[in-house]
Write a structure and sequence with these properties.
The chain is of the alpha+beta class and 508 residues long. The protein has 3 domains: 181 residues; 86 residues, Signal transduction histidine kinase, dimerisation/phosphotransfer (DHp) domain (Helix Hairpins, Orthogonal Bundle), CATH 1.10.287.130; 168 residues, Heat Shock Protein 90 (2-Layer Sandwich). The protein has 10 helices and 13 strands. The strands form 4 sheets. A 5-stranded mixed β-sheet has the order 8-10-11-13-12. Strands 3-6-5-4 form a 4-stranded antiparallel β-sheet. Helix 1 packs antiparallel against helix 3, helix 7 packs across helix 8 and helix 8 runs antiparallel to helix 9. The chain is rod-shaped. It comes from Paraconexibacter antarcticus.
Amino acid sequence: MSFRRRIALLTGAAVAVSILLASTLAYVTVRGQLLGQVDSSLRGRASQFVSFVRRPLLPPPAAAVGVTGGTATPSLRAGGGSPGFGVARSRLFVRPPQRRGDIDFYDQFLTAAGTRATGPPGRGSDRLPVDGTARAIARRGAGAELRVARVGGTRVRLLTTGLPGGGAVQLGRPLKEVDTTLAHIRWLLLIVALGGIALAVVLGRIVAARAMRPLARLTETAEHVAATQDLGRRIEAPGGDEIGRLATSFNEMLDTLQVSMRALDASVHAQRQLIADASHELRTPVTSLRTNIEVLGANPDLSPELRATLVERATHQAEELTLLMNGLIDLARGEGPEGAPSTLSLDELVAGAVARARRHAPGQAFVVELEPTLVVGSHDRLARAVNNVLDNAVAWNAPGAPIAVTLAGGTLVVRDHGPGFAAGEVGQVLDRFFRGAGARDRAGSGLGLAIARQAVTAHGGAVTVANAPDGGAVVRFELAAAGVAAARVAAAREPEAAPGPAADLLRA
């Protein structure tokens, strides 16, 4: 069953329950009012009977009823000379007169013994049922009972009321009119309920169809994306309600997924490019190394000088392969920093890298100006990036010229006095395996600056290269300093501390 149909059915069921409850309440209310009117008329008529019984005894009218087993004897009223009708061992029950147009009631007298009184029968006499409650009321001569009884197949509302001095009168009123009215009302309420339920189902389907339009568009878009992998399609948000929020969230999910897919495609492309470049770069040293080893193995009678030359070449090629493999490993680690980041002193890290470069190139002069700087990141990865830049500067620097290393405000600048970058190569020197025209005859893998850029980018920084106006190359690292001012404060609070390499101004 579709969601739209379920909404329509649930709407119809809710309306049906509401209509049934309202109809039941209306029916019970009308029934109560109609029976209340009948009960009021019965009580009014019963009060007339009670008032007649309380009157002084007069000559009995034709409608007088006597008790079975007794005889009515004429007598004079006490205190008066008018003739009356006294009761020796019997009692007379007198029906009050009924006005023209009044409701025609069933009536019946009960003696104090709970039996029907004899005499001229009234309407419904000897037909109204007498139960134990009615007999008890007659014996007490007080109390009242209202109930529904059947007289000759007719439903009658029956009132039994006690009479002063003993006995009771039973009054009945047929409920035919009430039953007919209630039957009409039941049919009317049933028709209204069925019509209301049918209308509710129809309107529920219409409302559900309109409410389901945004969901239908959402479903269509999701199916389109699943079938075509087109992440550029979006859904128009209809408003700020739940469906609008769902559409907005779906669009945001598509945006995030599209960015992720682009990043994944770029990563896959980069990995493929890395594999292609690595296979190309590895082919030459591996081939050369294999050739030298085969020559050594195939010619055991080589002269010691030639054998030493081939071994030296093989060793150099193995070192090149080791350097290339280390670079590939660094690149394969991706853009994320290694390990948990920590706050480190960038100036001390750069000073250590300069000391390493001095050891590898004893004749190279360095001019170092380092400002105390704190950054958050991986010490090993940043150190590798700085080492690569310094090694590149040493490799290209002019003999006897100093290399300037400056750190200020989270920006590290390394400037050499070599030939600089060719005009068309400035935008490519940071790419993997790129080697300029002047580097073809030099050792190297073309990965040093690419590894440095990847490490700095992973720390939220940027690497730029340029040619100095008076010659030479300039490589600039820009990192987000975590505490330049904090480092200065710490240095000011420890004036007696031994000056470390971060505070050195080294000049050779």
